[in-house]
Amino acid sequence: MPDSVSYNFHIRPILSDKCFACHGPDANKRKAQLRLDIADSAFVALKETKGAFALVPFKPNESELFKRVSSADTAYIMPPPESHLGALTPYEIGLIEKWIAQGARYEKHWAFTAPKKSVLPKVKDAAWAKNEIDYFILNKLDKTGIKPNEESD
After folding, report:
1. Mean pLDDT of all residues in 45-53
2. Which of these, 61, 63, 3, lies nearest to 36 by C-alpha position?
3. What is the distance between the alpha carbons of residues 87 and 89, in angstroms, rounded to a whole number?
């Protein structure tokens, strides 16, 4: 599980695969008048469930989204079994819970944000890296326990 959960990197793909078919931009297919693809809609009171909100920042257990995706009750769980979208995995549920606990911050689509240079990850053998990309590759190899090829050019 990542330390910090990103809407664009972690949450948007889950919602896109499992939720946007019924709670996305298509007004003709939208259920319960709930849109999860934009923050303005996701934080308002739910019309069909009195006193409930899809998302309550910092409070996953008060957020209908979390309660429904983590439910085992087939009459309550989202996405519903008849949608044939499949239930969320425990990892996906954990990401949503952590994202809400961290404030449920929406981010602009990546295409509309200026790129930022990433901080180089720590590696065991910085001398092996010949360029910045090598740091990312070596970091992943270090995490998986794979040793890089020692052959030189």
Report:
1. 89
2. 63
3. 6
